[in-house]
Request: fold
Amino acid sequence: MRPHGVIEKCLFCHHRIRTAKDKARAEGRSVTDAELHRLTACAQSCPAEAITFGDLNDRESEVTRQSESPRAFRLLEDVGTRPKVFYLREAKWQE
Reply:
């Protein structure tokens, strides 16, 4: 725990990912998309389910599908930072 007012970089709950991978390996299988979807603390605590977590290398995953949406964009992509966080623009309502 950091003192009040100290900010820490997000590590995407690396410890939770490691635990899920270790459990899957012990069971002789791969980690599933469903296991990753709400794995991080922020995704678990978001009541609107506005945060999706997953494996961008898995072509069948929900997070990959969302990252390929026309609504998807990444911050500072144009300066070569290669961000792995995608944001979705607000959907335009069609009448």
About this structure: The CA atoms of residues 22 and 92 lie 41 Å apart. The first strand starts at residue 72 and ends at 73.
